[in-house]
Amino acid sequence: MTPEHYNRTRRHVDFLESLLAVLVIALFALALFRPEGVLLVALALLIAGVSLSLQRQHQALQRYACPGCGASPHHKSDSVSGDRHDPVTPNCLHCGQRLLD
Question: What local confidence, expressed as pLDDT, does residue 100 receive?
Fold first, then answer.
């Protein structure tokens, strides 16, 4: 996974989390003011789809994360050394823990 792909996936997860929060609020508001069955079921199905997509994205990020510190193990950015990316390093660039194959 390249840093660009990781960052794109991370932004996608952030967007889905925000969308899920808005949809849940809309579901509660709709249930309070217009309890029509078809609309509530459609919104609940949409929330279920977003939740499933969010779970898949989180699983992809967890498989890529370092088991020690949870960060992206092959990419590090700081003010002193700048951006570093080493896709073949056997150790995490953040904590130094040996990565599993």
Answer: 65
Report residue 29 as tokens.
């508001």
81, part of any domain: no
47 within a domain of the structure (yes/no): yes
Token pair belonging to 63: 């498989």
Residue located via tokens 């130094």: 96
Strand bridging mode 82-85 / 75-78: antiparallel
More confident: 53 or 92? 53
Q: Which amino acid is at 30?
A: L
Range of the domain at 30: 3-64
The count of domains in the chain is 1
Q: What is the structure's pLDDT at 8? A: 82
Q: Shortest CA distance to 17 belongs to which of 60, 45, 55, 65?
A: 55
| Rounded Cα distance, 67 and 69, in Å | 6
Q: With bands split at pLDDT 50, 70 and 90, how would you rate the model's confidence at 86? A: low
